[in-house]
Amino acid sequence: MTDTILKIDNLSKGFHAVRACENISLEINKNEVHALIGPNGAGKSTLIKLITGFLEQEYGKIFLDNKEISYLTPEERAQKGIARSFQVSSIINNFSVVQNIKLALIGKNKNYLDFLTNINLNKKLLKEAFYYLEEVGLNKKANELASSLSHGEKRKLEICIAISMAPKIFLFDEPMAGLDGESSELILQLFKKIKKRAPILLIEHDMDTVFSLADRVSVLDYGKVIATGTVSEIKKNNTVKKVYLGTEH
Amino acid sequence: MTNLLNVQNLKAWYADSQVLYGIDLKIESGQMVALLGRNGMGKSTTIKSLCGIMEKVEGKVFFQGKSIINKPSYEIAKLGFGLVPEGRRVFTNLTVYENLICSAKKGYWSIDKLKLVFPRLNERLSQMASSLSGGEQQMLSIGRALMTNPKLLILDEATEGLSPNLRNEIWKVISEIKKEGISIILIDKYLHKIKPLADYLYILSRGKNVWEGNSKDLNDNIVKKFLSV
Ligand SMILES: Nc1ncnc2c1ncn2[C@@H]1O[C@H](COP(=O)(O)OP(=O)(O)OP(=O)(O)O)[C@@H](O)[C@H]1O
Ligand SMILES: [Mg+2]
After folding, report:
1. Sequence-separated (6 or more) residues with CB below 8 Å from residue B214
2. I need a surface site. Which of B43, B76, B154, B219 has the fewest CB within 10 A?
3. Best residue in B38, B39, B122, B124 to probe A by mutation, most A CBs within 10 Å?
4. 3-class SS at A58?
5. Pairwise CA distance, residues A153 & A146, whole Å
6. ipTM of the complex in this document
7. What CATH architecture applies to the domain B34-43+74-226?
């Protein structure tokens, strides 16, 4: 038995002359928020794309729950439990909030048959959707159109869609971008809660967020992992200070 | 001090729904003014209205004494507005270099000067902007606005998505620009960075002005009421 949920082994990917990811090895463990930080262009988003299967590695392997997933399609990986928040929103604007969740649930259960008649009638589905909406605190907005939600609420709905997939791991690429202090704080609290369901790999440039949320931090620079450790270890690391944190943190 | 921008009773709509209900702003030459407020309170819409990007606007906007309301965005840009819009917008079908020079004007900022701030961009001049990382696109968006050598630089969350040390670099650039006498309108979530730099601050809430003053008047009660959790 191991607590490792996602294991990345020697993963590499380049674009012409740019080595975006170079021999990256990482382990994401049960119950942890694992932050991935590093300079702009260090290869963080590329790594997420390799894990989700939107890009293919040159070499190296990815394991989810000890099973290799390196050559599965993005859909197959999602089905196996890899959830990510999309940079481009996955919300359907002219559906209500609860319909958005129901749709995600139908997709998860592969229950596409007659879902148009089912979506409004199926009580079990509705109950399940409300369960997840309560978890993120959107139950009071369940029947409003998704388009009417504020910026922060939309982000919550996206996270809610990810949670409703009951994934084995969450991958979040700058989920707080564009959010004000208040909304960021809500998302931060939400992450503290959902990490118990599945670990979170979090890319984030706001150090207050990273330092208050991360159990472990890995630092990428020019496609390589230059450090992995606890928040206090990372804060003390001189190389990390030099290439990323600067003098203020 | 001479007035650069004077905004009176600015209203704006997205389709049928009104989002600005009469905003007033003033910027003197060489001043840095900050727009503050929570998400969705009208900061970016105000910026878009000033730059001619909103379809439906009403009110008065004077730039160096001339009315610019309802002028098309390219004419407003030509008057000397340099905009870094929210959400890292660059011309994705152009290279880094083409993005930088397509709207450039001679002045303090040049490619040579810019490469000191963003060495990464200089390494990637021939890369297509679409394939840049998020933060690299943000650098390009800032670089492009600087290269226009604007009279008024408008930064809408310009430090978003940048690494902590580069963010600090941007704050240094902003104070440098200010010293050059260029006026700035700034939206940013790092209030502790804004306060020492801003000459005047406005807080917007639900499409209206709710507070204005200078940094030392912005006390904790006001921050709590209009800005924080
Ligand atoms: N198609 C491509 N051609 C050339 N270079 C590319 C291409 N795609 C990505 N890159 C480069 O790969 C590097 C890694 O990009 P990536 O998006 O992974 O960075 P990142 O760590 O997520 O950065 P940020 O913090 O700015 O989001 C960048 O320098 C980027 O310009
Ligand atoms: Mg990225």
Report:
1. B198, B199, B200, B201
2. B219
3. B39
4. coil
5. 9
6. 0.90
7. 3-Layer(aba) Sandwich (3.40)
> Which of A46, A93, A180 is most worth mutating to test chain B (most B CB atoms within 10 A of its CB)?
A180
Q: How many CB pairs under 8 A join A and B?
A: 74
Residue B141 CA from chain centroid, whole number: 11
Q: Which domains does chain A have, with CATH numbers?
A: 1-81+168-249 (3.40.50.300), 88-166 (no CATH)
Q: For chain B, what are the domain ranges?
A: 34-43+74-226
Query: Which residue in this structure is represented by tokens 């009421």?
Result: B225
CB distance A29 to A5 below 8 Å: yes
At position B113, the amino acid (one-letter code) is K
Residue ID of nearest Cα to ligand 1 atom 19: A41
Q: What Rg do the C-alpha atoms of chain B give, in angstroms? A: 17
Q: Which of B110, B175, B166, B169 is nearest to B143 (CA)?
A: B110
Burial class (CB in 10 A: 0-12, 13-18, 19+), B214: exposed
By the CB < 8 Å criterion, does B196 face chain A?
A: no
**pLDDT exceeds 80 at position B150:** yes
Residue A125 tokens, joined: 């589905």
Secondary structure class of B126 (helix, strand, coil) = coil
Banded model confidence at residue B39, pLDDT cuts 50, 70, 90:
confident
